[in-house]
Amino acid sequence: MIAGLLLLLLSIIIKSAWLGDDFYIGVRSFDNLLNGYGLRWNVLDRVQVFTDPLWYLVLTPFYAITGEVFITTIVLSIVTSLAAIGIVVRFAASTYAAAAAALLVLVSSKAFVDYTTSGLENCLSFLLAGLFCVVLGRTPVSRRMLQQLIALAALTGLNRLDLMLMLAPAVLWVTWLVLTRRLTTWRALLRGAFVCSAPLWVWLLFSTIYFGFPLPNTYYAKLHTGIPRGPQMVQGILYYINSINFDPATLLAIGFALFALVLSREQRFVAGAIGVILYLLYVFKIGGDFMSGRFFSVPLLFSLALLVQLRLRLRTWIAVAVLCVTAGLMAPAPTLLYHENAPVAGEQLKDHRGIADERAVYYGSVGLLPVLRHNNSEPWHGWVGAGREARGRRPQLVVFGTPGMYAYYAGPKVHVIDFYGLSDPLLSRLPIMSPEGWRVGHYARAIPDGYIESIQTGENLIKDRATREVYRAIKIVVQGPIWSWARFKEIVKLNIGSYGPSITAAGQSAQVKEPPPDIETYPRDASVDQPAAVPLNATVRATWDRESDGFSEFWWTDTEVVIEFALSRVDDPAKPMIIPVLRYGRDVGLQFIVNGSEAEAHSLPSSSGSAFIPMVVRGPWNQGPNKVIIKGSGEPVKPPSDDPRRLLFAVRRPAWQ
Fold it and tell me: How many other C-beta atoms are found inside a 10 Å radius of the C-beta of residue 629?
């Protein structure tokens, strides 16, 4: 029975295997390292863009050997996840019933199944969490046990620092017992803790010296946004609600596990439960994430690895399994029913607050089975093609807001400015453009006037004085000689907050550039329809809103697409509007037909080298419905092998960028 459940879980993991765009953000740094540019994302700067150094350190040797990142990462992720599952089943579970129930819970959890792959650190966190729980639950309290827990906690922190919050109560409880039972001395304890935690503090020291900061750049980009605490906590509540709607089995299993662990009154299990509760509160406090279920996957594995060590009655394990399987089948996209093209319904992709089923969003072009089915070894997502095209294009400085696949495939010679700030050392420290209308995990910053020119010339040409002063210090830290005394002084000043007033002033001066007076703006009372994929010869119908987050990317192989949208106000029907277009493959010419008449259109020069080309299209525009036909006057891009879809060009929602 156990073997059968393991095979079932493995088959579902393989069916669901995928890589997300965020994975490619981190892997670009290690690709640059292997190619001699150093551990840098943009080769100009030393910036830590990844939150999971241990995972990338484990992955990089395999990547160096194979020279291929897609299949290598998925295989390593699956093997690591299976090792974690094996630890729970073989070493943690007290009975066969407990092991079987755990497997049924895991196979019903969308959060767990989706993040056994994805390219993110979750799979390695599963393994470390499983090992930690086995040591905590199965080992007699001793100095050796404490050292093992500290070592595993340090490795977990090196893999993802905030997960240490989940392990801390158990480590503190064992430390207290070891000291009160006089199993060691303070001196021996501190010496052992220093040695066992070496992987973490050595990395933090290296990070501070090399990058200039102990924490990853994403910490500043996502947690120092200027968003008031209230809306952020509301977003945290919505993250829980999203999980209940998308993946009811996960929170149900975590809740039952915590209840049973506390009810057991065994101190080691209660300490573990307290750690999970603290981490869940932390997830609430930071507003969750845009990836549905991601932050619940490790707490689920951790809770189960402790729960299965309890000797519960057979009927209890049966009830747990039945409840979780039933809850899993009630989800919009049940994991037990996963197949290559599921889920596909647009409403299953993203809720109204921007929390997305990331696997469903990317699977069609970055899933293992779709890629293998077309005899490919890497994804064919539109950003992959756009990145490859950028390799030989000038200028080689690009502003791009989803910089994972695009930047990785663009290569080291293309400097990408990520306006969300994940990879940018200056933008990550500036407040977001607006405290309203943001999407969790996607906090857009206004690009300071003169910043692009500063990167192009190597001089500090930022016009705002406060921003210029902050950039001066950051530039010394991320671009200057590593062992410069002046650099270390700026490292200290930046890390202790000496530039706090300048950063505040810089944020206040940053404003979103409004369109020129001869460019029509778009209404604020519309809605946006964002289909995940449009089949061949389909008509795309969308209503765009200037304030809506994200953009619509339309996929087709034909050379024509129809877009319909409504305008609530038109001051001058002849005013031109901007429709940003991403050209892919060959440089196809574009023809615009607006409301039945061929329209004059030309592209704007873009000093930023943005991947989206602003096409200025002159009307006539109607108040109310408008119909735009975009035709490619060049030859259509030939699809690879038998791939029925190919991105000819993408259309971003009409908005000034």
Answer: 18
Taking residues 457-469, what's their average pLDDT?
93
Q: Give which of 567, 596, 599, 592 is closest to 651, Cα–Cα.
A: 592
**Is the predicted pLDDT of residue 260 greater than 70, yes or no?**
yes
The domains located in the chain, with CATH, are 2-337 (no CATH), 451-513 (no CATH), 514-657 (2.60.120)
| Contact between residue 111 and residue 296 where contact means Cβ atoms under 8 Å apart | yes
Query: Sign of the C-alpha dihedral, residues 287, 289, 292, 293?
Result: negative
Going by pLDDT thresholds of 50, 70 and 90, the confidence category of residue 136 is very high
Cβ density class 256-273: b for 16+ within 10 Å, e for less? bbbebbeebeeebbbbbb
Q: Which of 212-226, 376-390, 506-520 has the lowest average pLDDT? A: 506-520
* Range 146-152 contact pairs with CB under 8 angstroms and sequence separation of 24 or more: 146/171, 146/174, 146/175, 146/178, 146/184, 146/189, 146/192, 147/192, 147/193, 147/196, 148/196, 149/174, 150/192, 150/193, 150/196, 150/197, 151/196, 151/197, 151/199, 152/128
Question: pTM, whole model, 2 decimals?
Answer: 0.81
Rounded Cα distance between 579 and 480, Å, is 40
Task: Report phi then psi at 230, rounded to 5.
Answer: -60, -60
Q: Which residues of 239-250 are buried (b: 16+ CB within 10 A; e: fewer)?
A: beebbeebbbbb
Tell the residue number behind the tokens 């093209």, with chain if given: 341
First to last CA, the chain: 57
The DSSP 8-state label assigned to residue 636 in this structure reads P
Q: What is the C-alpha separation between 346 and 562, in angstroms, rounded?
A: 19
**What proportions of the chain, in percent to the nearest 5, are helix, strand and coil?**
50, 10, 40
Round to whole Å and give the CA distance between 420 and 404: 12
pLDDT (0 to 100) of residue 632: 61
Greater confidence, 373 or 248? 248
The C-alpha torsion from 215 through 208 and 22 to 286, rounded to 10°, is 10
DSSP codes of every residue in 112-160 = HHHTSSBTSTHHHHHHHHHHHHHHHHHSPSSHHHHHHHHHHHHHHHHH-
* Pairing outcome for strands 560-567 and 624-632: antiparallel
Instruction: State the sign of the Cα–Cα–Cα–Cα dihedral 171, 173, 178, 182.
Output: positive
Q: What sign does the dihedral 41-47-51-54 (CA atoms) show?
A: positive
Please report the pLDDT score of residue 605 as a whole number. Answer: 46
Whole-angstrom distance, CA of residue 98 vs CA of residue 445: 49
Token pair recorded at residue 401: 């807001």
- Cα(474)–Cα(430) distance, integer angstroms: 12
Structure tokens belonging to residue 314: 């057979």
Residue position matching structure tokens 């390219």: 119
Assign residue 35 a region: left if phi > 0, alpha if psi is -120 to 50, beta otherwise? alpha
120 close to 17: Cβ distance less than 8 angstroms: no
Joined tokens for residue 631: 């035709």
Say if residue 389's pLDDT is above 80: no
Which residues are bridge partners to 599 per DSSP? Answer: 592
Q: Which neighbouring-strand residues pair with 618?
A: 576
For residue 91, give every residue at least 6 positions away whose Cβ sits within 8 Å of its Cβ, in sequence order, or none: 134, 138
Q: Is 155's pLDDT higher than 50?
A: yes
* 3-state secondary structure (DSSP) of residue 443: coil
